[in-house]
């Protein structure tokens, strides 16, 4: 303990009273950061914390703990300068506090200065070698400096020593997405299992990481490598990966196809599905569903699957009990959605909970969720377009996701004030966000879930996406978000409704001939509204362009058969450089993703029109620009580039630069 000479003149009783108030403030601050409480309850706790601190500092103006905690409160409220001054005042009052150096580290992170943050966290560790908060801060700072491998090892160490905080798992998951895996590594496999087992993480984001580990473990680059079905059936990492991710890895897809074929071959020989193979069979069925049944099957497998489906129909006809159907249903689900089979109606006699627990995730994906989504689609006129399609050709939602990313709850007004420096005094209690091109809704739902003062209107041209997102929102009991096709959004805006924030996701395709995204946003945005968009379009690889040429040449339709044939052509020539970037893309590993990018590509004309709209400096002001790595850029050069481009200048185009830009409507 450092002696605080300046407080020596204060009576003991006053110091004790101040200490009690700081203790109460700490408890209130803890509550204000509790995920278990609503945002309103947390704000109330934050207010109480301030009151206690004001009282403590009135008694003892140089109380180091009170000054530091008040700095935390100011930092949480976006008052970075005040926070910085308070942390330094606390250190002046009582030097050598690890806590205050940690606070300064987090202040530097918030100020987008990760290298300075690292220095502060290291100072904190000099004061207290055991400080997990400081060690975690170093990990965050390393991650934000792009040193993903070093940060990853820090997060691993924190988990090993018992600091199992959400921010540690979340940071480790972010780093995992950037790691290059070159050899089989038991520690990495254990890390992947720990991440996949942890509930509440967006597991869909580590498909590439997990796929790379599995590729090395099974030596899939070696054409002579042997894979044993029984060993795969006991591989926890493989089964978790099949249950929870989509792995954008051609070699892993080949492995899954081979394992499915091996299960089918054994079933054909023995006429039964061994208990030991059932977990793997169920996991492959879930995975096949997630890919939209993109996995290629040989003719003999397809014939066997059809025979099994016929036998299920016969079993229903003679009223065999549910347990007699289970093995056949598991095998059937590896090849096609149970919802599409001729016996689908009979499956409806049971509820999801009537099935064995281990089987429920698979049968939910293959049957019950699809049935719910089909019911949702009936509410929209666009459903008429699907009526003439074969069941297996009905588009599937994309991207496939299961968990929202981890975020701390806040308010849109706080984001506008703290991140963009905007005045929010005249805004209403509830703000309206319009998400254009929401796809299957993950980003839109994150906005609705983590911002407590918003209602979200999410729009997409894919009815499958709207149905999936609506079902997911219902599952999460979210009542502040709706998912609509463009036709309803256009009517909504035409009726005079306006929004305070526009988020532009995937751009409409050329098929949306009656839609001008720029005109819609121009009509929908109120004075002071923010438009957040990106200046580049994905899905533009050489392989995509080649496939779109083939589609136009042969007038192909987006059926399951033609999508599988196009994929098969790419996989058969995977060493050819033209396909290299396409094979790295998540979309390629799902029929929904392939259908979107090849048959409903994004329309570059819509992006050009939108950039032309916001380049009008009389109407719009660029308030923030970030590069691909999330670093803030000076706005003036970006604004000049946008203007020059709108005037037809030959400057380097912003389109394709992948900046994240925020514009505010001036009037």
UniProtKB/TrEMBL annotation:
SMART domains in the cross-refs: TPR (SM00028)
TM segment ranges: none
Domain of life of the source: Bacteria
SUPFAM superfamilies linked: S-adenosyl-L-methionine-dependent methyltransferases (SSF53335), TPR-like (SSF48452)
Signal sequence interval, chain numbering: none
InterPro entries: SAM-dependent_MTases_sf, TPR-like_helical_dom_sf, TPR_rpt
Protein name: Tetratricopeptide repeat protein
Organism from which the protein derives: Marinobacter shengliensis
